[in-house]
Design goal:
about 525 residues, alpha/beta, 5-stranded mixed sheet, about 60% helix, CheY-like_superfamily, phosphoprotein, transcription regulation, DNA-binding
């Protein structure tokens, strides 16, 4: 049985703004109340009452399908212990009087509705409910226990009242069970409350010798500290399986049993939080137990941004996108990756693709305008698959831009020339030699190259060669005198001259600086 559960209330009004306003008027749980559901008419309210078993119904008078007058009559007939409070406008006195004849306890005029008035009326109604008065003695205990739980899960090594603990929790073993409703859509908000209530009912009916204490540390995740006999706690998965019948988007997280109350912080931070991360990657998993976290995920190789960028710069887009797709599959299978880092990777890739296409003078105006919507969607994504979907949508748009440019006259011919230079930069290439290879007149090739590329032939060839020389200086011990030959320069002094012009340092100074910076 859960201690200090508070007074349960449902709100019935056909105006959503009224319902939302009431829900946010007051810090309900601090005042000893809990909004367990809302309905837009009396018919919906009757179904909700059967599920939530409220102490108080706060209802409007004028509503479609079934109004507040009929609702009051039916509720007081079937559930005489439930208190009814009426919301009315100035001109509805006759309706209000009829609800009082049926058993309503009080009414509030909507134009005068404020937090203080609402609380006073609710507290008066709650004082008439015997079951709530009997539970008042448990409330302070629940508050103290809740405070200690909050301290431990926040990382504090706090002292606690051993006597209070032994009086509250009668059994040796503890367990944390979490109901993860993060994947439920906003329109299912009512169901989230029902799920928590159903959880408590299952504990009460199926596991007799236990005590539970609910606490919440993040939105849409309710965690229960369960105290009971070890053999009963082991049956927790059976309870979880019944709870999952309520909604296909729900998941239940169960940690191993532990004996010391003070370990609740460790179990929450080292187990439950990791389970929540696990579900981000594997949302189809309905019951997650501590054993799942011991599974060894695939080893992830670092993303080679230089390779990806180089493929892009030379417009080897198929190669770049295939490599990206392969890394994304690998990354999305590793639940140990921090969710923030995971999302940051995708945001960075989208940013880099936009910049690279812009540098290649593709028309990325629309893509630039849209990229922030992709950033927002990734930030709000609740699963890894949703993040990947956003990347795929962005890449498809990028491919459309690339394809439109490729269809332009002259671009495909230029790309063949650029690819040829890149593949043969180490050979003694010349404008005349390349022109002959492609059956062009050398002067025409020079003019064609300058028209369709932002760099001239020799400038482009030198850049490709120096980029390769830079990699060799950084990643190999090949003597500098030999590197010039490796990248296509027969004259070493000319190589040094070109290198210094592009990098601002001589090859030897560049290599020395790289070693010092490592």
């Amino acid at each position: 049985m859960k201690s200090g559960e508070g007074c349960r209330i449902i709100i019935v009004d056909d105006e959503q703004l009224i319902r939302q306003g009431i829900k946010h008027y007051v810090e309900w749980e601090q005042e000893g109340f809990k909004i367990v559901g809302e309905a837009s008419n009396g018919q919906e309210a009757l179904e909700l009452i059967e599920l939530t078993k409220p102490h108080i119904v706060l209802t409007d008078i004028v509503m479609p399908i079934m109004d507040g007058e009929e609702l009051t009559r039916i509720v007081k007939s079937k559930y005489p212990h439930i208190e009814i409070i009426i919301l009315s406008s100035f001109g509805e006195f006759e309706y209000v009087r009829s609800t009082f004849q049926s058993g309503a306890v009080d009414y509030i005029l909507k134009p005068k509705l404020d937090a203080d008035t609402l609380l006073n009326v609710l507290k008066t109604a709650a004082s008439r409910i015997p079951s709530l008065q009997a539970a008042n003695g448990d409330t302070n205990v629940a508050i103290n226990i809740g405070h200690m739980i909050e301290k431990f899960v926040s990382g504090y090594d706090t002292q606690y009242d051993e006597k209070l603990m032994s009086e509250t929790f009668n059994y040796e073993y503890f367990c944390l069970v979490a109901a993860d409703t993060r994947l439920l859509k906003d329109k299912d908000a009512i169901n989230k409350d029902l799920i928590i209530l159903r959880f408590e009912e299952l504990f009460d009916t199926q596991l007799k010798k236990i005590k539970i204490q609910e606490f919440t540390t993040e939105e849409n995740v309710s965690v229960f500290l369960v105290n009971g006999q070890e053999d009963e706690l082991i049956e927790m998965q059976g309870v979880a399986a019944e709870l999952l019948e309520l909604d296909s988007k729900l998941s239940v997280l169960i940690c191993d049993t532990f004996e010391n109350f003070s370990k609740i912080g460790i179990k929450y931070n080292d187990v439950i939080k990791k389970m929540l991360q696990y579900r981000f990657y594997f949302p189809e998993t309905k019951i997650i137990v501590e054993e799942d976290l011991a599974k060894e995920g695939p080893k992830i190789t670092s993303f080679n941004l230089d390779k990806f960028t180089n493929d892009f710069k030379h417009e080897r887009f198929d190669s770049a996108f295939d490599y990206l797709e392969e890394h994304v599959r690998e990354l999305s299978a590793a639940f140990t990756t921090d969710i923030f880092e995971y999302k940051a990777f995708f945001g960075n890739i989208i940013f880099n693709i936009s910049i690279l296409l812009s540098n290649l003078e593709y028309d990325v105006k629309n893509l630039e305008n849209e990229k922030f919507s992709f950033f927002n969607a990734i930030d709000e994504a609740k699963t890894a698959a949703s993040v990947v979907e956003q990347l795929h949508r962005f890449v498809e748009k990028a491919k459309e831009i690339i394809l439109s440019r490729k269809n332009q006259t002259g671009h495909s011919n230029l790309q063949q020339i650029l690819d040829y230079i890149e593949e043969n930069y180490a050979e003694p290439l010349s404008l005349t030699g390349v022109a002959n290879h492609f059956h062009f007149n050398p002067s025409y090739l020079s003019s064609y190259f300058a028209t369709h590329n932002k760099e001239g032939f020799n400038e482009y060839l030198n850049r490709i060669r120096i980029e390769e020389a830079t990699k060799l200086l950084m990643n190999s011990s090949i003597p500098i005198s030999e590197i010039s030959g490796h990248v296509g320069y027969s004259d070493h002094s000319y190589f040094c001259k070109v290198f210094k012009k592009q990098r601002g340092l001589s090859p030897s100074q560049y290599r020395r600086n790289q070693k010092l910076n490592k």
